[in-house]
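Q: What would this chain look like folded?
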Amino acid sequence: AYSFAREIEEQSGELAGGEAYSDYRTITDDTGILTVDVPASWTDTETAPQTTEAGPAPFIAASTDMDEFDATYNVPGMVFIAVPGETTPAEGLTLVAPAAGECTDGGIYDYDDGRFAGQYQIWEGCGGVGAVMVVLVSQAVDHPGYTFITGIQATSEADLAVIDRIFSSFDLTT
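A: My prediction, written as structure tokens:
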């Protein structure tokens, strides 16, 4: 099976080992629409809908420290948002790309797991600490009308395995 962790590790090679995560938990957003599995130790979460120009957007974020995750590349974390309307992957990736000079572009790749299809982009060497970001912009094959953006920040090799778990578990409850 394809592994984002293996692919990114081969490309970046900069991350420290870290201890593998053994326990995961499923988070559901406050609207009850989105779910995703995250490491049990990522206890700082946000699940309230976000306000967008297109209207309220179901949202999940999780990290070991959301304030640090929002401001730096020093801790691991993830976001998963369903934005009303259909945005092209190229437009969506531009919306969430790191600021110029913060990371090295590792390329854009097609994504299709049979339920969600779009593109993902890898960002490496982020924030001067070697962090890796992976951002996926997709549409659900069976649920048109939303663009799904899934972003994950990894600070260790152990976090890379989390990318595989998040990408295999993010889902809609409807």
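The radius of gyration is 15 Å.
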